[in-house]
Design goal:
392 residues; Aspartate Aminotransferase, domain 2; alpha/beta; single chain; L-aspartate:2-oxoglutarate aminotransferase activity; seven-stranded mixed β-sheet; 14% strand; Aspartate Aminotransferase, domain 1; coiled coil; Aspartate/tyrosine/aromatic aminotransferase; binds (2S)-2-hydroxybutanedioic acid
């Protein structure tokens, strides 16, 4: 049986981890996978997470199964963090193994309820989106998103392409901090997109993996909240990997907004999908998140540290844009300072990306996506000089 298997292509983001590890050069710089790193290169366990873990270790009496949909307190806390108050009667939800688990469950839910529904993806998008959709054999289409000339959003192209969406199609939208580009819609542009998609009868499917990494915890939820208030049905796949720094704990949630009358049936289908795919979702990370969100002191400390993380990335952006101005004697990389989130797509060619890796030991994804958090005060000028030498 297994002899029929063909080798799988390597995941382009994850492949960089091994390539970087195996590079013996001193001074190599990792701007690949989307993991937050402090100035020393460490991905720290957040203070509130450590404190919650300590409390949990002391108080936890059992590790018996949690609920099939996760602990209700986790789901309620996450719905509150993402959407604010007022959604209890519309929000069906399941805890999932990370944001990827939520995306997978959402796609399976779409496939179950509307086989043949088109899933629209931004071009470009996180490569795992099309990969999972292809694996599930679902139809997909792309809408223009990135303007290669300005490195901003191609808003006219986006509107034109989304103008072709049909009623019942699912449209995957990055709620904030677009991955891989770092280019984001303004709230006024979101309003236009919402009006267009509502008129079309589309089902928004929001991927919210970086809440708190862009303009702030509340600000980064603004587009999702706008969408939630306008559409009868919305799918939201959210991750706690980045904003709680609990990557390996696999902590995510899928929220399906529906009518109060349909909620029980939708919830039952979400539970069913969890049961088919992995039975019970992981609990450790979800429990830490719940403890943090429910406790005033832990929550305040977590928010303060998340804000430090966000502001650190923002100042790295500003420093990099300034260094690139000097190094290239031009303003053509100023977009780095206006992008938000972990990533910026620099707009370099694949050959330039390869030269940066081979000659300079600087690792970024092949589409020239950099993880801003991979930088520090020392490496910013090194990167700027290297970019200038390949693209100056
Ligand atoms: C990324 O885009 O680098 C992260 O979301 C990590 C991943 O799983 O790809």
């Amino acid at each position: 049986m297994l002899e029929t298997l063909n080798p799988q292509p390597q995941d382009k983001i994850l492949a960089l981890i091994a390539m970087f590890r195996d590079d013996p050069r001193d001074g190599k710089i990792d701007l690949g996978v989307g993991v937050y790193k402090d100035a020393t290169g460490l991905t720290p366990v957040m203070r509130a997470v450590k404190a919650a873990e300590k409390q949990l270790w002391e108080a936890e009496k059992t590790k018996t199964y949690t609920g099939l949909a996760g602990e209700p307190a986790y789901n309620a806390a996450m719905v509150g963090m993402i959407l604010g108050a007022g959604y209890a009667d519309r929000a069906a939800s399941v805890a999932t193994p990370g944001g990827t688990g939520a995306i997978r469950q959402a796609l399976e839910l779409i496939k179950m309820s509307a086989p043949g529904a088109m899933v629209w993806l931004s071009n470009p998008t996180w490569p795992n989106h099309p990969s999972i959709i292809k694996y599930l054999g679902m139809p997909m289409a792309e809408y223009r998103y990135f303007d290669a000339a300005t490195r901003g959003v191609d808003f006219a192209g986006l509107l034109e392409d989304l103008g072709r969406v049909k009623a019942g199609d699912a449209v995957l939208l990055h709620g904030c901090c677009h991955n891989p580009t770092g280019a984001n819609l303004t709230l006024a542009q979101w309003e236009q997109v919402v009006d267009l998609l509502a008129a079309k009868g589309a089902v928004p499917f929001v991927d919210l993996a970086y809440q708190g990494f862009g303009d702030g915890l509340e600000q980064d939820a603004a587009a999702t909240r706008l969408i939630a208030g306008k559409f009868p049905e919305v799918l939201i796949a959210a991750s706690c990997s980045k904003n709680f720094g609990i990557y390996r704990e696999r902590t995510g949630i899928l929220i399906a907004l529906t009518s109060p009358e349909r909620k029980a049936v939708v919830q039952g289908n979400l539970n069913f999908l969890n049961r088919q795919n992995y039975s019970f979702p992981p609990d450790h990370g979800a429990r830490l998140v719940t403890m943090i969100l429910e406790d005033d002191a832990l929550r305040a400390d977590w928010k303060a540290e998340l804000e430090e993380v966000r502001l650190n990335m923002l100042s790295l952006r500003q420093e990099l844009a300034a260094e690139l101005r000097k190094a290239t004697n031009s303003d053509r990389f100023d977009f780095v300072a206006t992008h938000r989130g972990m990533f910026s797509r620099l707009g370099l060619t694949e050959a330039q990306v390869n030269t940066l890796r081979e000659t300079h030991g600087i690792y970024m994804v092949g589409d020239s996506r950099i993880n801003i958090a991979g930088l520090n005060a020392k490496t910013v000028p090194i990167l700027a000089a290297a970019i200038a030498s390949v693209a100056g």
